Amino acid sequence: ALGLFTGIGLSEAKARETLRNGALSALLRRAVLQARSALGPALDKATGTLLYNTAARLKDPKHLGFLVGYIARREILTDLQLSAALEYVRSHPLEPLDVADFERSCGVGVCITPEQIEEAVEAVISKHRAELLAERYHFNMGLLMGEARNRLRWADGKTIKNEVDLQVLHLLGPKTEADLEKKPKAAKARLAPAEKQKVAVVENGDMGTETQSLLEQLRGEALKFHKPGENYKTEGYVVTPNTMALLKQHLAITGGQVRTRFPPEPNGILHIGHAKAINFNFGYAKANGGVCFLRYDDTNPEKEEEKYFTAIREMVEWLGYQPYAVTHASDYFDQLYTWALELIRRGQAYVCHQKVEEIKGHNPPPSPWRDRPVEESLLLFEDMRKGKFGEGEATLRMKLVMEDGKMDPVAYRVKFTPHHRTGDKWCIYPTYDYTHCLCDSIEHITHSLCTKEFQARRSSYFWLCNALDVYCPVQWEYGRLNLLYTVVSKRKIIRLVETGAVRDWDDPRLFTLTALRRRGFPPEAINNFCARVGVTVAQATMEPHLLEACAREVLNEQAPRAMAVLEPLKVTITNFPAPKALEVLVPNFPADESRGFHKVPFHQTIYIEETDFREEADKGYKRLAPGQPVGLRHAGYVITVQNVIKDVSGRVIELEVTCTKSDVAEKPKAFIHWVSVPLACEVRLYERLFLHKNPEDPSEVPGGFLSDLNPDSLRVVHSALVDSSVHSARPFDKFQFERLGYFSVDPDSEEGKMVFNRTVTLKEDPGK
């Protein structure tokens, strides 16, 4: 075999590498032997290259002999012709091929004369004559080559290049010293900082362009996904005699539209990983002019609740997406049952009585009922539907082996639980393995996008659609998104709630979508985060601070400024310049005053942060201290300490100060925030819920995730003060409290006592 491969021009190293690939070497051996039988034992290198490329690039080996015949007869002579031939057989999976159409598509028998090449190049140069004379040899000659090739598709590339070189030389003459100098690179236009910030923000699910947008990442060409109706071009897709007719019918129904679906189970709340799935499914459809269904996979009535249905749709819409239609797997229970009967009639499914424990894992014992008569399985399946079997006493199983080696997955099981939507109509319910692909088929989904762990189910997906002769979509897998310092599994979150570690599914320390919304994360920030993670096949595990950075970018643009004091220190201005409170205009966004102002009262009694005063100013300390005045932000005044009042324990409880207008006072070292005539509020400050990056990893946390809880994950400030400009704020409204961070109004807020959640600090904590 080594001699056989080196005999067609492969180097010894390349031949040995080929031999290590059993499938490739077997195909290449067949190709070489077939060509030798037609051309003799000595094959030239050009023929050998064509044979190697055929064996390496051919997706379906049944066409090998057909293609090698054309190479051996010297009817396919160039790699360009071979590429067209390979694309043709890939696009026409059914036998027999239309030979005349194939030969037209591959340029078989087409003879391009030197005169034709000369005329084509002449026409192209004439078209670009002015630019060529101006730019001379700095002109992009590849453009001339490309246009000439477009005019003469099957012409030899080297011959075209030689003709281009010859005619350019004739037009321009030999290269001069100026022609040999490198062309200076055009300077890229730089975005102004404000523009950079602007394009990073997302609106209604549409991404900006600073980082490549999610929509750009999801264009069909970018992902190399198949076009609607061209499912058969996908590697591994199973083609049956009915495939092309079913695809034609599918295209007639969809009009060639991209269709995706987001299929959550309504037994829990969506988390940050689902945000990527939502963005991927809805985003791919949107990017390619298609539609996306929201389909609830409601096949497990024991765990489904109305609150989950509602919360899932709410979160999808909160992220900026509108489903084309909201459907349920249960909408199709009647059709699924009819198809189950048909599967049994075709000998592809049977009723089995093995216990759940017996068929768990990847190597369970074969079912002794696998070969029971079709009529018997039909009767028993009907008995299952009528409730004559108890739970676990009978299942309907499909006759196939999955990619991970699992044999005969269950299609239906008995459950005596009323269904959320169908009530007591059914006591048998279909499984994911049975339901998912068939619901995709019913809805004419073009791209069934799911996370990588479902790759092992791809073979059963294709098998079941083809076993029933129904339209078969294509399943594509992508890497799931995980975050460090958290848990997202439903079971573990329930344990956190039950043990009192968190309040509920929307506790702001969790990374469920409802929790992120409650904490104040804007949906645009979550979409931006998903865009930055990208659409990867590999699993992505990210640090929370990357999500926080996305939140800061968006909130900096969206959250109006206000002033709040977490640890108030009373300050009395003894020479206040007015008999009553003054009104101070504060810009909502100091960097852009065109976005408006709000008024705050300025009274002789104000409150500042305790940490903004020291009795002794250390070196480097620039805020308020005896002998060291500070400015009051937005007020136009500088204050100076006159008297420090303490309680019996020596704690400072009040300052008496005098004020001077900023325009006459010496410029202070610092300006601090303050409040006057404020509103009392509660502020909740959040930190990570877990101490370790991977709280579920026994090697990192031997005691289990509940032993890894951070005792300082929540600090409640009960007596904070905020300026009165926020008095009409509603739950989920967001503000930047100057110098403190970004905060969101919590739904726990009541009349007279607002509650704020800190979303993120103004700057990233270097420790994180």
TrEMBL record:
Record bears the keyword Repressor: no
Localisation: Cytoplasm, Cytosol
Broad EC category: ligase
Pfam families, per database record: tRNA-synt_1c, tRNA-synt_1c_C, tRNA-synt_1c_C2, tRNA_synt_1c_R1, tRNA_synt_1c_R2
Residues passing through the membrane, by range: none
Keyword terms of this UniProt record: Acetylation, Aminoacyl-tRNA synthetase, ATP-binding, Cytoplasm, Ligase, Nucleotide-binding, Phosphoprotein, Protein biosynthesis
Matches recorded under NCBIfam families: glnS (TIGR00440)
Function noted in UniProt: Glutamine--tRNA ligase. Plays a critical role in brain development.
Subunit structure: Monomer. Part of a multisubunit complex that groups tRNA ligases for Arg (RARS1), Asp (DARS1), Gln (QARS1), Ile (IARS1), Leu (LARS1), Lys (KARS1), Met (MARS1) the bifunctional ligase for Glu and Pro (EPRS1) and the auxiliary subunits AIMP1/p43, AIMP2/p38 and EEF1E1/p18. Interacts with RARS1. Part of a complex composed of RARS1, QARS1 and AIMP1.
Protein name: Glutamine--tRNA ligase
